[in-house]
Design brief:
The protein is built from 12 helices and 15 strands. By secondary structure, it is of the alpha+beta class. It is globular and about 60 Å long.
Length: 343
């Protein structure tokens, strides 16, 4: 295995310490992904340097020109505090002719736009919930062709921002209230889509041209479903005390209806290609009781912490965490960005 110089890109506030013992547990939780990735890359023998970014690319430019890394390992999910601006940073790396891990700028842009991605997926016969977009700052009419219950969320934000039990609405008054909440509090356009009641299952995908799908991984909502709907709210995804209280965890998706696992793998590969993705991704699905499959979102920058869904799914397939990160590096080194065709 070739030893590489790896510049790990991350938010400036998430640059981890050299050792886990150097900071309190709460602080370590914030930068867990960054810590896990850097520590494991170093254990693999690579020379690793963290690059903390917020709103200025001069530091990145200096590192690339002076240190001359072989590849950038991308852990950014924003730039200048704006979700989605990270694809401009990856575009900047392409202009500097530096390989990088993860998705290319076009795939990031298409998958992050929940409206455009759903339109593209529908065109490519990937089933998605019926939906409409409600633009912020403009007068709107409530959708009439969608069937209640409906689900309201941000058209651009991820990590379950703005998602709560109140996101599921069953009448016009609640629908208007939730649309206004997204417009005023999240400050983005809203998507209103038909709510799919069922199991929440994730499929990891690795690859550029030849694609590998990982085992389906399911969110277990524990006791939460005894009183509320089983949806990945902000609290369910990120509040560890809430997770412990309700027994919320993720696990291998077992006992799926006949043929559904193969269908998930097929649809994931189709969606990955339709959205021009590369490197890696996570596809988020809902599966109804009668085996109907709906793709909710394609995540071009899934969490890579050692104890998160993608790594655990890979481990279930016999790919340990170090091997997973090395595969991601290899995919980044081999990705054929446009500049490579003119060398």
């Amino acid at each position: 295995m070739r030893k590489l110089r790896v510049a790990v890109l991350m938010h400036e506030k998430l640059v981890p310490p050299a050792a886990a013992t150097d900071i309190p547990a709460a602080r370590l939780d914030e930068c867990r992904t960054e810590f896990d990735v850097m520590r494991t890359l170093e254990q693999l023998g690579h020379e690793v340097r963290s690059i903390g970014l917020h709103d200025n690319l001069s530091h990145l430019r200096d590192v690339v020109t002076e240190w001359k890394p072989d590849i950038a390992f991308n852990l950014l999910n924003e730039f200048q505090g704006i979700l989605g601006y990270d694809h401009y940073v990856i575009g900047y790396l392409e202009l500097m002719k530096l390989p990088y891990t993860g998705c290319n700028p076009r795939g990031m842009m298409l998958s992050r736009d929940k409206v455009l991605s759903k339109q593209l997926l529908s065109f490519h016969h990937v089933p998605v919930p019926m939906f409409v977009r409600i633009e912020r700052g403009r007068r709107y009419a409530l959708p009439r062709r969608l069937r209640y219950p409906l689900f309201v969320k941000s058209a651009t934000e991820d990590a379950s921002l703005g998602i709560a039990q109140a996101s599921i609405v069953d009448d016009e008054q609640k629908l208007r209230q939730r649309i206004d909440f997204i417009h005023e509090n999240v400050q983005t356009d809203a998507i209103v889509e038909e709510y799919i009641d069922g199991r929440e299952v994730y499929m990891g995908v690795l690859g550029n041209d030849r694609l590998t799908t990982l085992p389906p991984w399911e969110m277990n909502f524990g006791t939460m479903t005894q009183s509320t709907a089983g949806i990945a709210t902000r609290k369910a995804k990120w509040d560890k005390a809430y997770q412990r209280r309700h027994g919320i965890d993720t696990k291998r998706a077992d006992a799926l209806p006949a043929g559904v696992e193969d269908q998930l793998a097929k649809l994931s590969r189709r969606a990955y290609r339709a959205l021009h993705m590369s490197g890696l991704a996570r596809m988020d699905y809902r599966i109804t009781a009668d085996g109907q499959v709906y793709l909710l979102e394609a995540n071009s920058n899934p969490n890579l912490a050692a104890d998160e869904d993608l790594a655990r799914s890979a481990a279930n397939a016999g790919i340990d965490y170090a091997d997973l990160l090395q595969r991601i590096l290899n995919l980044g080194m081999s990705y054929q960005a446009e500049w490579r065709h003119y060398e």
